[in-house]
Amino acid sequence: MPVSDDLTLQVANMRPQDAGASIARMSAASMTKIGIGEGDLVELIGRRHTAAIAMRPYEEDHGLNIIRLDGLQRVNAGASSGDHVEVRKAEARPATRVVLAPAQKNLVLQGSGEALQRTFLHLPMVAGDVVSTSVQQRVRDPRLLNLPAYGLQEIRLVVVSTQPRGIVQMTAETVVELRPQFEEPKEARRADVTYDDIGGLGSSVEQVREMVELPLRHPELFQRLGIDPPKGVLLYGPPGTGKTLLARAVANETEANFYHIAGPEIMGSRYGESEERLRQVFQEASQNAPSIIFIDEIDSIAPKREQVTGEVERRIVAQLLTLMDGLEPRQNIVVIGATNRRDAIDEALRRPGRFDREIVIGVPDQNGRREVLAIHTRGMPLAEDTDLDEIARTTFGFVGADLGALVREAAMDALRRILPDINLKEGIPTEVLEKLTVTQDDFTSALKR
Ligand code: ADP
């Protein structure tokens, strides 16, 4: 078979444990077709372009025309799962200089670029990419922890610029400049949450994707079939199970604008204020469609009318009903409501054409907890003895938010252990940083609190 310049493959999701390593999994036939082998670089071209290291496929994918990418790579390539990307053989040039900045608005970093240079050593990157320090797990560079306060957590950075341009690879000679503040990437790439950041929800993620992603991305399918796409989806589940996370991830992965309404907060005091606010959000969302409107704790603004005592609630329910009914099927807006009380919301809201789809977001089981723990410890220097399986086994009843808090607590314990050895004015010596690992004991004592 002659080597061809390019190849089109369908994007599928990477397994979470492989995420963050800049690899793209594809079949041997695909690699042969573009004349590369395992470990070689490929350029991925969707609505944007990025680079990755080609790797062999998962067992079940042999012979399929798919390419597995993680959440950041999908963002960087401008392609969602199910889309097609062009895949080409690529060469990376050694970077002489790379400028990085936090990819999150609320994150300020003061570390040296030098530690990052070792973290991202040999990784391919393109200006505009969002990269994650979870690659650190592969290289385990303790110097990355020079980044104070966030050193124990995964950090996402935007590649602001590179010299030379195009696909580059960090080398031992690359000069890395770290800007302290968030920079809005030139082309808006939002990578704060992707599907890789959600663990233990099993088929609920697929259900949400089907109900929300499909109509937002392919409204023409629904038109062609002559059916109306869903306007409203209700997510039911206890607090902290990831409902907000999931809604954000769907918005990011479909490149839809995200509008967040916090139920209790919208209850204004002035007459008509809450309805006005709802109308505003719906109006903005339709001007900027495709959009997702997320109404958290919807039961607080739309409780059952027979239980309603306040005039305000009655008016808000009426307003929300009017707004939902006014949404045109072709407007490309999906409203997602979240509540932990299945029967607490007004039945009128659950009629056809309103919130007529329901998805249960449950408390994770042991496997689910293991997935969530793996996500929250990404980029964390875990000691050899840490046993995430054991922690998952002993945290019955914990939801995602509880597990996140547990991991943070354990990391704080690890930090406290080295504090006596540190003179904060002088910076942290490498030997001390190398000792900074989160141990099984840290988890056990965090659990007791
Ligand atoms: P909810 O909207 O269901 O109350 P959130 O989505 O606000 O819950 O979750 C709060 C935080 O808890 C998240 O930002 C995340 O750090 C963590 N979390 C919750 N659920 C999960 C999950 N399924 N996987 C990973 N992290 C989770």
From TrEMBL:
Residues 110-185 form the CDC48 domain. One of its GO terms (cellular component) is cytoplasm. GO terms for molecular function: ATP binding; ATP hydrolysis activity. Keywords: ATP-binding, Nucleotide-binding, Plasmid, Repeat. Residues 229-365 form the AAA+ ATPase domain. Coiled coil: none annotated. Signal peptide: none annotated. Residues 8-92 form the CDC48 N-terminal subdomain domain. Belongs to the AAA ATPase family. CDC48 subfamily. This is CDC48 family AAA ATPase. It comes from Rhizobium grahamii. The chain holds residues 1 to 449 of 749 of the full protein.
